[in-house]
Amino acid sequence: MPSAPSRDLETFPNPEPARDYTIRVRVPEFTCLCPKTGQPDFAELTLEYVPEAHCVELKSLKLYVWSFRDEGAFHEAVTNRILSDLVAAIEPRFMRLTAEFNVRGGIYTTVVAEHRAPGWQARAPVQLP
């Protein structure tokens, strides 16, 4: 197999550190296991962040997400763990992780977790006519 799951998150320097801008990454095929039944749970992850000095390298993010495939985790726990690991790796100005889990037992779950660096405030959106 040419690649394997990994918990190593690689980074690269932010090419525009003086500017606030948003990076959005959609991961439509997240999989982990239900910690109660061992059955697979499927989710779509949406990562949005305003980088500071570093950005996350996407192939390492793919391998990182893959590493949860055979791990049992509650939706709330795995969403917050992923957010914490990403924040530790790149120390963004702002980061939001939305995990939309597919139906399980007739219930859909969406977990939204956020990080905001101390002192950082989003700029007001520009309203164009």
Keywords:
129 residues; 4-stranded antiparallel β-sheet; 19% helix; globular
Indicate the topology.
Layout: E1 11-13, E2 23-33, E3 40-50, E4 54-56, H1 58-66, H2 75-90, E5 94-104, E6 107-116
Polypeptide structure, described:
The structure is a single chain. With 129 residues, the chain is an alpha+beta fold. It is 19% helix and 38% strand. The protein has helices at 58-66, 75-90, and strands spanning 11-13, 23-33, 40-50, 54-56, 94-104, 107-116. Strand 2 and strand 3 (40-50) form a beta hairpin. The longest helix has 16 residues, at 75-90. It is globular and about 45 Å long. The protein starts with 10 loop residues before the first strand and ends in a 13-residue tail after the last strand. The mean pLDDT is 96.
